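User: I'm writing a tutorial on reading structure tokens. Could you give me a worked example: one chain, its sequence, then its tokens, then a sentence or two explaining what the tokens reveal?
Assistant: Sure. Here is the example chain.
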Amino acid sequence: MTYTAAELSGLLAEADDMPPGEAQVDAVRDVVRHAEAAGLLDVEIEARLALVDALMLTAENADDVNAIVTAFTRCVGLYTAHPDRFDDDLLDMLWRQFAAQGIVLTLMVVYPLRLVRGVFDDMEGRCRPDRDDLHTVHSIRLLLAEVTGDAEMGERALATLRHREPPQYACPACLSLYQVRYLASLGRDAEAIAVAQPIITGETPCDTDSQPADVLQILQNCYLRTGDLEEARDAHRLAYRGLDHDDEFDVAQHLRFCVLSGNTERGLEIFRQHLRLLEDTPTVLYELELASASALLFRTLVEAGRGEEVLIWPANPDVPDEEDEEWTFADLHEDLLRDVTELAGRYDERSGNTHLHDRMHAIIQETPLVDELPLSPLAARRKQIEQTPTELPEIADALKEDAPFEESPLDKALAHARQGEDLLNSGSADRAIGEFIEAAARFTALGDTRLAAFARVDLSTAYLTVGRHLDAAECAEEALPDVPPEKDAEYTGMQARWVLACAYPELGQSEDALRMLAEMTERATEPGTLGRVAKKEGEILGALDRDDEAAARYTEAASQFAKTGDLFEEAVCLRQAALAHSWAGDLDEALAFAERSREVVKHLPHDEERSTWELAVLQYDRARILATHDRTEEAATEAELAAETFRETTDRAFVTRCELMAAKLWYDLGTPAHAKAALERALHEPAEDNDHQADLTEAQSLLDDLR
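And here are its predicted structure tokens:
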């Protein structure tokens, strides 16, 4: 059967919509075959590039990788013969696929080094001066230099990358990660940290949401080696939360950190959680890294006299009749050491040196850089108390009935807890933190898990208040299992979950936050609590672009606040529901909810500024809704109305913002006189902060353009 180009393009689009798998691969292959037979070159190019992508999504073994390399080679051949038929989008696909091929060829020892170098050299020769593809070539060359120990290649690549911007088709932050990894592998930790800084701060953007967690996987050990212990601790904690649990390299970094920081028990716990990654004999570099780090862990445990302890290796549920196995720590060390030696030797045979053998065995012989690095401020204080037995007498002595009140360690702990509560309630959360740490540490030392849980919940609240989201989450997580059953649905259990619901989104754990809020909904009975929970759900769902769900939760929140008579919160939630409906594309519902919010605002106290402010924000948001749906003139008028209302409040920044919005809308409508008038009004307001100054600067720039 003969197809037209349009028909084949349609079939290719259908294949693209299929889930990854053999059926998709076969569908794309059919398009390739028909396009080639019909001489439809443009369709064939697109289809062959699509075939490489489809094969990459299903690859499981070396044969699959060979098929990918063959398919990619055909794409390169088409580019060689017909470079004019590859536009920028097709070239982006080709170079993105080259990056993947380069990584695979480098990591799989079965490919001769001569072949790997040849592919890199060939692709470098195809780099055009009007594109940034040379950045891709040298980024992947750093990985090859790491594997082979070719220092000259590595330095040349680094020098080139310092003067080039990442290409548009790749994530800038993730591509920069190769520089950080290479420098860290050489022990050039200060340089690695310096290169990583723009990734950590967000100056180098990440398109995949995997940063800064991925770069922190590497930096945790760099920080340890440079003596930046607090940075090391926080990098480890943040990175582990963002860990891809299928990534052998990242798990290896955490195991090394645990040994180097004196936290071998945590290392053993992490090893147990990732046993399945070590079920098979390692075959590629990342698996070699994990085997080496694991061998390091068990060498350390053996030297600590724990070689005869037993680890149960659970049976693989996918293997019939397989049973659990028992391994001593000493046997695990020996087995892992053999795996490392064998695979490193195969890599080095390909490279013609002993580079990886030497590097991996150096890792296995590493020793702790500190005796034991506490992984939180609370853990640090608990350790101090444990190491100073005289600070807290034996519990039996502490709780004697005839002990003087002022000398009781329990009383001292309670005093710290009460002082923390007073400071927190008076708005001094930063000062309350130290009191709660002291209380929680002392209660733990006294063996009172109940009071320790209460103190940790209060500590997590203080951390949340000052924006220390990681500490807040860890304290609340530690406290929640110890909350007494009778307190689970009361303040202690509910507050712990609320802290987690607020902290998790800041740590990239929005789904976990929604889970906490769902647990709160199951336990709550008061409308005010249910309203607060539903409103928070709306905020999180909105940030995830799940706008229909967000609108529903805001609506529920408004309903619950209405039951309590809280008109302000009811108005806010109806307004937020209107915005969510707008983002979801439903203008009618958006305007209907905005009108419902307006009706509630009418009943707010007329003598309070926040009532006027809420009306102004409603008008501003209604202008945004109208503008989003191309009702531009109405939006401009509403924005000017919002500005007038804001002038009745002390919020001068929003006056400028509304007038600036109105000016842009009037300009889009082709009425520069209206735009100019709005900009002049915007510039009457003195700057209140940096954001306000930015709006004023933009307004002045637009006004200058109109003059």
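What the tokens reveal: The first strand starts at residue 310 and ends at 313. The chain has 34 helices and two strands.
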